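## Example record

The block below lists the input lines for one assembly entry, exactly as stored, with component labels intact.
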Amino acid sequence: MHQPLIITIGREYGSGGREIGQAVAKKLGISFYDKEIINLAAEKSGLSHEFIASNEQRVKSGLVHNLSASAAYSGGFFSHHYLPLSESIFISQAQVIRDIANKKSAVIVGRCADYILSERKNTINVFIHAPIEARVERIMRLYHLDEAAALKAIATSDKERGNHYFRYTDRKWGKAQNYDICINSALMGVEKTVEMLVNLAQIEERE
Amino acid sequence: MHQPLIITIGREYGSGGREIGQAVAKKLGISFYDKEIINLAAEKSGLSHEFIASNEQRVKSGLVHNLSASAAYSGGFFSHHYLPLSESIFISQAQVIRDIANKKSAVIVGRCADYILSERKNTINVFIHAPIEARVERIMRLYHLDEAAALKAIATSDKERGNHYFRYTDRKWGKAQNYDICINSALMGVEKTVEMLVNLAQIEERE
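Predicted structure tokens for the full assembly:
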């Protein structure tokens, strides 16, 4: 018997990657994880959900990294398992992702899941992006923002996700070679992109 | 009536991108361009095929670029339209690619075609890559090389293609956001990857 199929989805803010992931999971009849992982990770690590939610992607490049090298084992300021807090969170999330992958088929959005499961068989790593105009339009519509606010939210998110990914994986976020398939969701639209990914998953499942 | 459909394919050496491009063109019943473009460009620019073939991707990062800034209009060493030779070749190739795109549907492999046609409608920009093991295996098989030679050829090609692309486009080669779809050809294999791209092209054609 195959081990469970895992589809990881990295995505640009406003690309529809989360919606695509949800629809793919639903069509395949498998589980879907996104923010839920934060909650599971929180339970494991004993940190409050709110704290993790507000800290887990606020990695400023350099700062925390330097601190982690020099102060990881000094306790005090960092505490929690003698690791910097952001490291603790990442390790908990990674453990949750591995636990899911051992148990059942699932779509997992974000959280460097592609990297965490990079040696795993029966895993399809997906990255969803879209041209800036399409992302702005989507964010304006979904969150009732004006254009300037949407642009700002996108710039902030790109920077945070890129920093977070690089910090924990030492790889460049959105580099094609790190994924099995990268798609501009604006090419075919959300629905047809979902269809393509479902077909792809079914090909992989059959083999 | 639609303007012709153009599929551009950037590809890593040993990923099967060229073979995939040829098969996609054949299945769609459209033209295929790769080295042919060099010949057409050569005819236009008056440079010999051999000369272009041996020079067009030998862009050493920095060197030619610096020379082009300082010496582009000094004639002599560079001559040919008062542009550095590599610039002349690129400009000729770009013109050929635009001419093709105006006239007929085609698959165009390499030559920064995605960038040259980046503002064009009815264009699908594809990037094909594969894990290093799959690329080595393919190169060894196709060119009867041993593993060390295959690895060396791949490293040289990656560097040359990356430099060439960056030099003319100021964009990073293999960055997902520069393409509509990027695929690891080892995921499904050449045949199923061709199928997926043909389906994608047919969806685009219908719309």
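Strands of chain A lie at 6-11, 31-33, 106-109, 123-129, 181-184. The interface with chain B takes residues 12, 124, 127, 129, 174-177, 179-184, 187-188, 192, 196, 199-200, 203-204 of chain A (CB under 8 Å).
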